[in-house]
Give the backbone structure.
Amino acid sequence: MPGVDYKTVQSRVPMARALELLGFASRGVTGEQLRGPCPVHCSQSPRSRSFSVHLAREVCHCFKCGFAGNQIQLWAALNNMTVYDAAVDLCQRAGVEVPWIERW
Ligand SMILES: [Zn+2]
């Protein structure tokens, strides 16, 4: 099984694109940061701002459930997948080529 170049996945499917695919509804933007309801623990209120995303650093963090990670880890958590499967799925959903790497 070939490996996946996670760094390249992140550059091909930026955090903003992954959030768009998730249907994330931002409740506020401050510079490079977005706040909104957490898709991981499913915030009860659509007006929640517990979930924080840093677009430039491509990381997100939830102040309530403690989830922290990049867009691949977020995709894995939401779809109950391994990080490997999430990276492949994310590329396919975004319509970009999966950056396979051969393992030696
Ligand atoms: Zn959460």
